[in-house]
Design a protein that fits this description.
Mean pLDDT: 90
Structural class: mainly alpha
Shape: globular
Largest sheet: 2 strands, antiparallel
Order of helices and strands: HHEEHHEHEHHHH
Number of strands: 4
Helix content: 40-55%
Low-confidence stretches: none
Number of helices: 9
Strand order of the largest sheet: 1-2
Radius of gyration: 16 Å
Strand content: 5-15%
Number of domains: 1
Length: about 200
C-alpha cells in the first residue's frame, strides 16, 4: 500500500511537472516522423496479466514486424530523433501513465513480451509476483545492453540465454530487500546514469 501511494502521488506530480516536455516531444516526433507519436506494446505484468506499455515511438512504423523484438546499438530501424530519445531514456517517460493507472511501478522488474515470458521456468516466474517498473537494479546493471547485444553474433540468443536470465536473478534478489528508500535510490541512480550516458 505504501508503494502504491508513493507511485500514485509522484506519477501524478510528474505528469503535471513534465507536461511541457511531453508536449514538446509529441510535437517534435510528429513533425519529424509523423503519426503515431506513441508506441504501445503488449507486455506481461503483475501475476501474468497482459497490459499495454506506453513509449514514445523511436523506430520506423511496423519495425517490430521487420526484425527481432530486441534492439541493438545503431539498429537500422531506429529513427534519428529516436536515437536521441533512447540515449537519454526519454522514450520511457510516457510509462508514468502506466504507473498512474497501477499497471506499473516506478521501480520493479522491466515487463517482458509474452514470447520471452513463455521461456521462464517455475523459479523465474516468481518475478511476475512483482509489479513491473520503469526502472530496476537490472536495468542499471545493463545500462549499455544495446551496445552489448550489438557486439555478439546472435543478439536474440544472447539476450535469452545470458541477459534475460541474469536480469531475472537480479530482480529476485531485489525483491528480498525492496523498500521505498531503496526504490528512491534506484530512481536517483537511473536519472544520473541517463544524464551521464
Amino acid at each position: 500500500m505504501t508503494k502504491r501511494l508513493f507511485d500514485l502521488f509522484f506519477s501524478f506530480l510528474a505528469i503535471i511537472l513534465l507536461s511541457p516536455i511531453f508536449i514538446f516531444l509529441v510535437i517534435l516526433i510528429y513533425f519529424t516522423e509523423g503519426f503515431p507519436v506513441f508506441y504501445l506494446q503488449e507486455r506481461i505484468g503483475f501475476k501474468g496479466k497482459n497490459f499495454k506499455i506506453i513509449k514514445f515511438r523511436t523506430m520506423h512504423r511496423n519495425a517490430d514486424k521487420e526484425g527481432p523484438l530486441i534492439t541493438v546499438d545503431k539498429d537500422q530501424r531506429i529513427t534519428k530523433i529516436g536515437g536521441f530519445l533512447r540515449r537519454y531514456k526519454l522514450d520511457e517517460l510516457p510509462q508514468i501513465f502506466n504507473v498512474f493507472k497501477g499497471e506499473m511501478s516506478f521501480v520493479g522488474p522491466r515487463p517482458e513480451v509474452e514470447k520471452y515470458v513463455k521461456m521462464y521456468n517455475m523459479q523465474q516466474r516468481r518475478v511476475l509476483d512483482l509489479l513491473p517498473g520503469i526502472t530496476d537494479p537490472a536495468s542499471l546493471y545493463y545500462i549499455s545492453e544495446e551496445e552489448v547485444l550489438a557486439n555478439v553474433k546472435n543478439p536474440e540468443q544472447h539476450y535469452i540465454n545470458v541477459i534475460m536470465n541474469d536480469k531475472i536473478n537480479i530482480n529476485l534478489k531485489y525483491a528480498e530487500k525492496a523498500n521505498i528508500f531503496f526504490d528512491f535510490i534506484i530512481i536517483l541512480k537511473t536519472i544520473i546514469m541517463a544524464i551521464k550516458k
